[in-house]
Each structure stands twice: as C-alpha cells, then as structure tokens.
Amino acid sequence: MSHLVLVMGVSGAGKSTVGSLLAERLGVPFADADNFHPPANIAKMSRGEPLTDEDRWPWLDAIGAWLDAHAPGGGVATCSALKRAYRDRLLAGRPAVRLLHLSGDPALIGARQAARPDHFMPPSLMASQFATLEPPAPDDRTIVLSVEPPPEDIVKAALAALANP
C-alpha cells in the first residue's frame, strides 16, 4: 500500500527531519515545503516578516500539485499548514492524504528553532507561528505526535498509526 503523508507543524517542530526519515522508511519520495516557496516569500521571512495568506496560496497550490503527482506511488511532503483554511486547500480532493501533526511545547520548539542559524525562518517569528496555529480537529483523521521523542521514535509511531487507518 502506498502512503501519501503531509507532515505539518510550526517551524522548528521537526517536519523536515521526521518527514525525510518517514519517506525513507516508506520507500517513497520526500518534498520539503521550504523548497516550494518563491524567492519573495523567503526574502520576506528572512526580514522577520510573517507571510500573508496571499503570499501562501501559490505556495500551497505548488505543494498540492506535488501531492497530486505522487498520489499513485505515494510520497511524504512537509508544510506548516497552520490554519484550517490552508489544510482545507491542501487536502481538498485528496482523500488519500494523511495528515501528521508534529505538536509540542513552544519553549522546546523555540529552543530547537534557535539552534538552526542557517534557516531563513528567524526565531523571532515563533510567536506568530503559535498564534496562527489552528490545531486540527479530531475528525480530520490527523495523526498527532509529540516532538519530544527522538525523530526515529516519532517515525516508528507514525508508521504504526499509518498501518491502522
């Protein structure tokens, strides 16, 4: 069975690390949402300016197109997908996509974010990430996992959850 997974959460939650490990374990392609941002979005975030919804729509559509292209064989993509409207746009017409929410304490995630000096998302935007986050509802068929365990343990838990749809 091929799996199509969208790993979501605030910046610094471990989406790229967990997503790439999960894709490896599933034997499917991996796509990091950061690679879908147009240069204007990266420049804006690098200046410490949060993106607007208008900035995000083309980015979300590009991630959705990647999911569509990989639906037959499976894949794992990451996206912060902080608002329900963003997830609705990403999941609309894509019933095969499972959402994996990496959730954690703002202090822990903030410390991890601060340890990533080469990333374009500055730690100063962490507060806006958590302020924007609208956690998925239980009816969203979302797998919610804590960011506290080591990445390999998170991946094991994700694989177990994916095996039980």
Kindly describe this structure.
It is a single chain. With 165 residues, the protein is an alpha/beta fold. The chain has seven helices and five strands; from the N terminus they run βαβααβαβααβα. The model has no long low-confidence stretch (mean pLDDT 88). α1 crosses α7.
* DSSP strand content: 5-15%
**What's the shape?**
globular
Mean of all residue-level pLDDT scores: 88
Query: How far do the termini sit from each other?
Result: 12 Å
Uncertain stretches = none
Order of helices and strands: EHEHHEHEHHEH
Rg, rounded, reads 15 Å
Order of neighbouring strands in the sheet with most strands:
2-3-1-4-5
> Roughly what percent helix?
40-55%
Number of helices: 7
Backbone structural class? alpha/beta
Based on DSSP secondary structure assignment, what is the total number of beta strands? 5
Write the layout of secondary structure elements.
Elements: E1 4-8, H1 15-26, E2 30-31, H2 39-46, H3 53-70, E3 75-78, H4 84-91, E4 97-103, H5 106-114, H6 126-132, E5 142-146, H7 151-162
Parallel strand pairs: 1-3, 1-4, 2-3, 4-5
Keywords:
alpha/beta, 7 helices, single chain, 165 residues
Kindly summarize this structure in a few lines:
The mean pLDDT is 88.
